[in-house]
Design brief:
The protein is an alpha/beta fold. It is 38% helix and 15% strand. The protein has a six-stranded parallel β-sheet, sandwiched between helices. A six-stranded parallel β-sheet has the order 9-8-7-10-11-12, sandwiched between helices.
């Protein structure tokens, strides 16, 4: 972190409002953004409606943190606490992220924050398809308070425009970026370092995923696809030495482990929980699979692409904006372990296809999803809303005269 006082107080302040600062794709994107915005451009504060965790240690800038300790269910006092924090901070911009933080737009307005941004990062239970009348009504209710929307995919942008009624000029689609230096292809196979690799570690074919082991990520479908793959591929366990690595913690980790144990595959699968060494683990994989029920723009797909991996992903949300069918990977229906197993088997049977699609994925990540490009797009949004609000205030002053 930067020494206190190094950033000038007259540098505009952004208050980022999120549900909780912990391991997750949205939170990872926030960390990447803050770390790469020059401190002379913007200062940052993070307001957590619940709490922050040690995940904050990934932030390299001088950031002020607030935890409002929201109680489960309705907590009306939360809005007063949020208003007090924002009134004290007097940020130039408030940026709320996700549906859980959308209602913070009202306390932000009441605290006098004129530039207000809201990010749509994807969908979760119980509204993975965006069809809930309740959540549509909530988004429409708060629509007049938001100056600029930042959806992470064209799918989400279409939803905001067509279903919520957001004017097109208020929408700035910004897809996530990936650090292509940190996430890069392995120079040689790293599978030999995995605990389930021996014997014959250098010949293992590792099918892997990274993500929260929660319902919206649907890890059980990948587990079922792997069981199906083992049953279909002659000698899959021994000849091809198929292995499965599922990185991430969550409430479904134990049920998935139990299911794979009942299938008698515990010796060739590894579920290590949440890890800090994701770049290294991706370099130990040969095929990346994302079985999600819903996605915005998946950070883990981008990280896998930058790592030179072919990707098999469910055809949901923004996944089709990342995976080029038949060139960098394959898209399959969600909750369809048989189709997933079929696509994984293409790579299990054809090493040249794996290498070709993986190389294509790396090039696509470098050319279209660099993290510096993402940062510049966010800076354009922040600069733009400040100019818009200043012009609005100026027009009001002139009318008063």
């Amino acid at each position: 972190m930067m020494p206190p006082g190094e950033v000038k107080a007259d540098v505009p302040l952004i208050a980022h409002v999120i549900h909780r600062l912990d391991v997750g794709g949205m939170e990872n994107g926030l960390v990447n953004l803050i770390n790469r915005i020059a401190p002379e451009r913007y200062r940052h504060a993070i307001v957590c409606l619940t709490e922050h965790t040690d995940f904050r240690s990934r932030i390299e800038r001088d950031v002020e943190y607030f935890s409002l300790n929201k109680r489960a269910g309705k907590d009306l006092g939360l809005y007063l606490r949020l208003w007090r924090v924002l009134s004290r901070l007097q940020p130039d911009i408030v940026h709320t992220r996700g549906l859980a933080a959308l209602e913070a737009q009202l306390p932000a307005m009441l605290a006098g924050v004129r530039a207000r941004v809201h990010g749509e990062h994807g969908r979760d239970f119980p509204d993975v398809d965006g069809k809930s009348r309740k959540y549509r009504a909530l988004r429409r209710m708060f629509r007049p308070l938001v100056n600029r929307y930042v959806p992470l995919s064209h799918d989400l942008a279409d939803y905001l425009r067509d279903d919520i009624g957001v004017a097109a000029e208020k929408i700035s689609t910004i897809r996530n970026g990936v650090d292509t230096d940190r996430f890069r292809p392995a120079e040689e196979t790293a599978a030999s370092r995995l605990p389930f690799a021996a014997p014959g570690a250098s010949e293992c074919l590792v099918i892997g995923t990274v993500g929260r082991m929660e319902a919206v990520k649907d890890p059980m479908t990948l587990a079922r696809a792997f069981v199906e793959l083992i049953s279909r591929v002659p000698g899959g366990r021994k000849r091809l030495r198929l292995r499965l690595m599922m990185v991430g913690g969550g409430s479904l980790r134990a049920p998935v482990q139990d299911y794979l144990a009942r299938a008698k595959l515990s010796d060739i699968v590894w579920l290590p929980g949440a890890r800090e060494d994701v770049p290294e683990l991706l370099r130990a994989m040969h095929v990346f699979v994302l079985p999600s029920l819903a996605e915005g723009i998946s950070n883990t797909i981008l990280e896998a692409m930058a790592s030179g991996l072919p990707v098999v992903a469910t055809n949901v949300g923004g996944n089709a904006e990342l995976v080029t069918e038949g060139e960098t990977g394959y898209l399959v229906p969600r909750e369809d372990p048989l189709a997933m197993a079929d696509s994984i088997r293409r790579y299990a049977d054809d090493a040249d296809l794996r290498r070709r699609h993986g190389a294509n994925a790396r090039r696509r990540a470098e050319r279209q999803f660099g993290i510096d490009r993402m940062v510049e797009q966010y800076l354009d949004v922040y600069d733009g809303v400040l100019v818009e609000r200043e012009n609005y205030a100026l027009r009001g002053t002139q009318k008063a005269k």
